């Protein structure tokens, strides 16, 4: 699509994990878009969001006059509209696993989300994590290690080159970087840590971090 007129509506960069996912896909794929940021702690936050989406949540992608209002729906749409960007693996088996892993992230890991909210800039190691959170982390380490072993031989990401699956797990990597500096206790042989390092070496994530720092230094900054 030569000129889709993409407009992505997102929340605070320090804390809006769902906003990060489609933003990272667009940036990594080199797809032009207009970024609209909403402070999710503003008193009129809901009214601001409803200007862009009747669902009342972010992120929202507008492609011309078409609205897509769910992170997974957004990235699927982008993958379909831009097949040349290879946002899903080309191999059919890898693609099936990548979609399964992305869907598991989309619907799962509730304990980690609840007890370890994304604070992109923070470093707050937790000595004690409740068992459901520990179980989530063990599963994530296992999943990442399996994807890297089976499909990651030609590059540093889950399926070698960057895909939607990496965007879906980038906020998870941020949470682990914030709260769990040592993944060895959760069965990591170094694979998961190297994967986190590869994600955080992306220029796009460095740009997101700069945006988060700018927001936090402004008098209207807030968390979501």
Features:
disordered C terminus, 9 helices, alpha+beta, 224 residues, Glutaredoxin, 2 domains, Glutathione S-transferase Yfyf (Class Pi), Chain A, domain 2
Shape from CA axes?
globular
Name the poorly predicted regions: 219-224
Instruction: Please state the average pLDDT score.
Output: 93
- Main sheet: strands, sense, barrel: 4 strands, mixed
Instruction: Provide the gyration radius in Å.
Output: 17 Å
Percentage of residues in DSSP E strands: 5-15%
Please give the domain count.
Answer: 2
Provide a concise account of the structure shown:
The protein is of the alpha+beta class and 224 residues long.
Characterization of the model:
- The protein is of the alpha+beta class.
- It folds into two domains: 6-85, 3-Layer(aba) Sandwich (Glutaredoxin); 92-204, Glutathione S-transferase Yfyf (Class Pi), Chain A, domain 2.
- 51% of the residues lie in helices and 7% in strands.
- The chain contains nine helices and four strands; from the N terminus they run E-H-E-H-E-E-H-H-H-H-H-H-H.
- A four-stranded mixed β-sheet has the order 2-1-3-4.
- A hairpin with a 2-residue loop joins strand 3 and strand 4.
- The longest helix is centred in the middle third of the chain and has 21 residues, at 131-151.
- It is globular, with a radius of gyration of 17 Å.
- The protein starts with 5 loop residues before the first strand and ends in a 7-residue tail after the last helix.
């Amino acid at each position: 699509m030569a000129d889709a007129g993409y407009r992505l509506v997102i929340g605070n960069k320090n804390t809006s994990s769902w906003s990060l996912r489609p933003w990272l896909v667009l940036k990594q794929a080199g797809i032009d878009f207009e970024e609209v940021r909403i402070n999710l702690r503003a008193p009129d936050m809901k009214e601001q969001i409803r200007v862009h989406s009747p669902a009342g949540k972010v992120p929202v992608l507008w492609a011309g006059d078409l609205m897509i209002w769910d992170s997974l729906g957004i990235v699927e749409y982008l993958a379909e509209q831009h097949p040349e960007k290879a946002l899903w693996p080309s191999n059919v088996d890898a693609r099936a696993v990548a979609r399964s892993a992305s869907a598991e992230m989309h619907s799962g890991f509730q304990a980690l989300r609840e007890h370890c909210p994304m604070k992109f800039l923070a470093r707050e190691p937790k000595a004690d994590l409740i068992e459901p959170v520990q179980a989530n982390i063990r599963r994530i380490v296992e999943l990442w290690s399996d994807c890297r072993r089976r499909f990651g031989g030609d590059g540093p990401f889950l399926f070698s080159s960057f895909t939607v699956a990496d965007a879906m797990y980038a906020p998870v990597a941020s949470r682990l970087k914030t709260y769990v500096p040592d993944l060895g206790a959760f069965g990591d042989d170094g694979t998961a840590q190297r994967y986190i390092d590869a994600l955080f070496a992306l220029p796009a994530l460095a740009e997101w971090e700069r945006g988060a720092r700018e927001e936090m230094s402004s008098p209207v900054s807030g968390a979501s």
